[in-house]
């Protein structure tokens, strides 16, 4: 009986290890600041600590192209793959995140709300400046760019026609800015329509617009094969998280 219990425990541990190391964590950051930290702002020392831990534990950053190939071929990525993403295109991403990513030889994705390029985060009281088109280009090739709506609107509250209009502007703005981008979308606030019919129409619209992937929040790891490429989940990384909490998020996803 003891042997049977030990065997079952070992099998469970092996299954759990395989399940978590073969799943993809997608990290969601916003701001990096040398001193400040809050729910949307990770301090520079914290960010350095995060990447150092990932590096010493053999995590490898992937690109959106690598993720797309994996999704379309219904195959898992190599163990300990990770995708690092940033939302909103704050100037501090260039000043502080980029040098740390370069030091650790890691890649990242920046999701851009294109109406506010070179302005400020008007949806949050204009507390922080946002990158200009020239500054965005300085992030390459460490960063690649994706869509984050045009007006930083919460798609949860919009009609299909409103989503269509905003998405069309988001795509057109990238062409006007002449910045290379990947047709991957991150929902502002993680919001998607509650009404199943509207959500389905939105996803069809995205597909027709050439968008290949879309990210919510969800705070869970992404397992393969992916059930819905327009519902990929990200882990909300906060400045209020301890290193231990960050590690648990990366390893197992949503915390109870």
UniProtKB/TrEMBL annotation:
Q: Which InterPro entries does UniProt cross-reference here?
A: Glyco_hydro/deAcase_b/a-brl (IPR011330), NODB_dom (IPR002509), Polysacch_Deacetylase (IPR051398)
GO BP terms: namely: carbohydrate metabolic process
Does the record bear DNA damage in its keywords?
no
Record SUPFAM superfamilies: Glycoside hydrolase/deacetylase
Signal sequence annotation: none
One Gene Ontology cellular component annotation held by this UniProt entry: extracellular region
The protein's location, in the record's own words, is:
Secreted
User: Which UniProt keywords are present, listed alphabetically?
Assistant: Signal
**Domain called NodB homology: residue spans:** 80-256
The UniProt GO MF terms for this protein read: hydrolase activity, acting on carbon-nitrogen (but not peptide) bonds
Predominant location category: secreted
Instruction: Provide the protein name.
Output: NodB homology domain-containing protein
The taxonomy runs: Bacteria, Pseudomonadati, Bacteroidota, Cytophagia, Cytophagales
């Amino acid at each position: 009986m003891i042997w049977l219990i030990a065997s079952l425990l070992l099998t469970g541990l092996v299954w759990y290890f395989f399940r978590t190391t073969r799943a993809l964590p997608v990290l969601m950051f916003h701001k990096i600041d040398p001193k400040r930290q809050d729910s949307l702002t990770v301090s520079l020392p914290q960010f350095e600590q995060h990447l150092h831990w990932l590096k010493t534990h053999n995590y490898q950053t992937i690109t959106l192209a690598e993720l797309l190939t994996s999704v379309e071929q219904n195959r898992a990525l190599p163990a300990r793959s990770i995708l690092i993403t940033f939302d909103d295109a704050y100037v501090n991403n260039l000043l502080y995140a980029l040098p740390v990513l370069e030091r650790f030889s890691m890649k990242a994705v920046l999701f851009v709300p294109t109406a506010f390029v070179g302005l400020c985060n008007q949806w949050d009281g204009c507390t922080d400046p946002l990158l200009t088109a020239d500054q965005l280009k300085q992030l390459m090739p460490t960063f690649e760019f994706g869509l984050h709506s045009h007006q930083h609107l919460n798609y949860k509250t919009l009609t299909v026609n409103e989503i269509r209009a905003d998405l069309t502007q988001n795509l057109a703005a990238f062409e006007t800015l002449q910045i290379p981008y990947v047709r991957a979308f991150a929902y502002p606030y993680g919001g998607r329509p509650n009404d199943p019919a509207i959500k389905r129409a939105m996803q069809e619209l995205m597909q027709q617009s050439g968008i290949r992937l879309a990210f919510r929040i969800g705070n869970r790891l992404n397992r393969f094969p992916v059930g819905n490429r327009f519902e990929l989940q990200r882990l909300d990384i906060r400045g209020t998280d301890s290193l231990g909490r960050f590690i648990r998020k990366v390893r197992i996803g949503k915390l109870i």
